[in-house]
Request: fold
Amino acid sequence: MLDGRAGEWTVSCAGSTLHAEMVALADGRLSVLLSDGRQLTGRVTRPGRGEVGVSTSRGIVRLSLADPLHDRLDHLPAAGGPSDSDEEICALMPGRVVEVAVAPGQRVEMGTLLLVIEAMKMQNEIRAERAGVVKRVEVRAGEVVEGGVTLLSVQSVTALGGG
Amino acid sequence: MRLLVANRGEIALRVFRACRDLGIETVAVFSDADRAAPHVAAADYAVRLGPAPARESYLSIPAILDAAKKTGARLIHPGYGFLAENAEFARNCEEAGLLFVGPPSSAIEAMGSKTAARRRMQQAGVPIVPGLTRPAATVGELEAFAAESGYPILLKASAGGGGKGMRSVDSKEELAGAFERVSAEARAFFKDGAVYAEKRIERPRHIEVQVVGDARGKVIAVGERECSLQRRHQKVVEECPSPVVDAALRERLSSAAVAAARAVEYRSCGTVEFLLAPDGSFYFLEMNTRLQVEHPVTEEVWGVDLATEMIRIALGEPLSLEAARLSPRGHAIECRIYAEDPRRGFAPSPGRIEALRLPEGPGVRNDVGVESGAVIPIDYDPLLGKLIVHGPDRSTAIARLSRALSEYEVAGVETTLPLFRRLVTDPEFRDARFDVQWLDRRLAEGLLTDPEATSDDAALAAIALAESFPRAVDGDSAAESSLWRLAARRESVRGDSS
Reply:
């Protein structure tokens, strides 16, 4: 499990937590400096759906991503590729809906603002990750939501048979 | 003076380096698959041979001779594989007035027929593996031999070599069928269906001796190599010296090798292969009338440069190596880095090399024929290169090999690197307790297992994936991603492993 932003992370694994700072090396590998002083170097690749390859001085190991997220990662615009499932945007922690910026039936593109949620004293803009049409909006501005609640769903363009 | 290498990849680069050491200009030849290959980029001259298939390029004698003519190359080096042991090619070069960097075509021919080679060795007093010295015309002849020597026996293609066209026969019942199959394979691979038989030696080691001869008839031996680590008769790890050869045995092996080379009036670099039985007796197996893939381990230990020596000899110079002044220093190990997938039975793994990082430091040598970004074509042998380590003794060499393997990275294609990483930790490898059947047996028993992922691996993966998520498009918030999204990412990168 990890938490953080732009190069600085907190990593928790099997009961222990460390702070990690990451830089990218010129040849594409990563160097991670852990708060216990250890330095990790490796190259991370995405050889296939749900798979992650990590190449270090010990060789290459293959990890697989636990559900449900491997879908989410594989639907990243950068990864490309069509998808024929709806995307459900869920509240992953409790928060308050500040603004609902779209309505059902509305066409959205990658980056279109969907909702603004306030959580942990920060305003968070939730934007569409790919083109589609808003299918259902489950919440209203001002509403407080629990973790796990579906906020809205977007049907991808390709599922509609093309843009 | 210009030298054309009728080959590609790491051996072409190796020979080009020897040329540069000698101040000789270099000529590369290439197929359409290799226009952007490193060996072409390294050469002073380059000529296109034809389309990618070897038969239309690197095996095309007319195209190669034309290339020599076009560039004024006087010397031709065949490398290994391709036309290196093609007596017709050597003859054509001789007839065209070119200097073939290798033995006379007569020597290639003499050793090309395994049965003829065995007869010559017998005459020269070199011990041969017990068996027939002429191809068997009928199954009856094979039966008679087997009845006398006992099973198991090996059926071998007379025109074969390098472990191809061989079959073991354990009983009389299998004999007729095996004879059919080996003949058919021999016809298909070598265009000659002649088959002979040898007694199969149990748990032999493959020990080969490097020989070098000059035009004046001087022939010397430059130590032996241990090449028992083979996967389906293909060498994967070679060493020099052999851990089981002492000075006395080396002396006897060297004498036999020199006698073998003299028997065919050998010139240039060559290798005489022997099988060493557990009881210490040894037998001539075959002679390779070319520079071998594993020549670097001999170079590192004996302090010689075999590629430049070959070129000098081809130019008529006397041997620069004096047997009396040569002495071995330390131990060298070579690993052949093939683009093969160990998890899929070592099937070739063509593709693009996304990243290549080679090890360096004390005792490390890389003879590599590819670069980062290179596409490995399917048309040729998938050897990316060789990793050679040297140390004052075998255990230091192994320690350096471990270190070098930890620095070695090939991304984008699968390689044999996991095999070597596994070997260096194996007690039997470390104790040199192996024979030619050892690696196949250990692989079948599950030598290779997927490496265990650690929490460090998961952390690297998690951080890399989280960093790669698209940011909010709005410029201001791009710099500091929202905690909300990051919470989503936190969920998403939990790896499967501990």
